[in-house]
Amino acid sequence: MPIPRPMLPTLLAVLLFMPSLTLAQALFQYGEPYMAVTDASQATLVAGPKKGAPPLAAGSKVFVLSVADGWATVELDEPDALPASAHRYRLPFAALAGQPGKTFTERPAWAPAPGDPALAERDVVGYEDDSWIMVREGAAKPRRIAKGRSPAVSPDASLLAYAPDAGGGIVVVDLTGKAKPRHIATKPVDVREIHFAPDSRRLAWRVDAGTEQKRNDRIETLDLAAPEAKPAVLATGLPADASFQGFGQDGKSLLVFAYDDDNSQLRRLGLDGKILGQQAVSAFTDAILASSADRYLPSPATDTLLLAGTGVRPTPAMTPWLSDTGSALFLCDLGSGTNYRLTPRQLVAFFPAWTPDGQRIYFVGLKESPAYGTPHLYRMNADGTGLTDLGKGTVPSVGTRP
Question: Which InterPro entries does this one have (predicted)?
Answer without folding.
Answer: 6-blade_b-propeller_TolB-like, WD40
